[in-house]
Amino acid sequence: MFHPPFCPRFGCPSAERDLAFRYRRSGSYHRKCDGRWIQRFRCLVCHRGFSTQTYKANYRYRKPFLHHALVHALCSKVTRRQAARLFGVNKKTVERRFVRMAQVARDFHLARLQECTEAGGID
After folding, report:
1. Which of 57, 70, 99, 113 is deepest in the core (most CB within 10 A)?
2. Rounded distance between C-alpha atoms, residue 51 and residue 9, angstroms
3. Does 84 share its domain with 116?
């Protein structure tokens, strides 16, 4: 079962407190692109709604399946223009997703580096 780690709304007062994040489940919705059911939640402090999809790297994508295909293609040295041709999308779409993937990878590596330095592994 998924438990949201924090309220995704910028400026929510729950982020400033040292207490556990308080939320409740608030239904679900059917995603059109792949037919999955997505769990919805509501923050009990700011009363804003969000879902499990909010925390994913492919948040707000109309074609989330394209994310994994692009990762594999770009890691296999396929150019961005050729990837756009292969998947039948605009090259601007590939460029935006490439930038987003780079941001996610950078944030992931910075978090792992922080964990290692806190554990005393890397100076």
Report:
1. 70
2. 12
3. yes
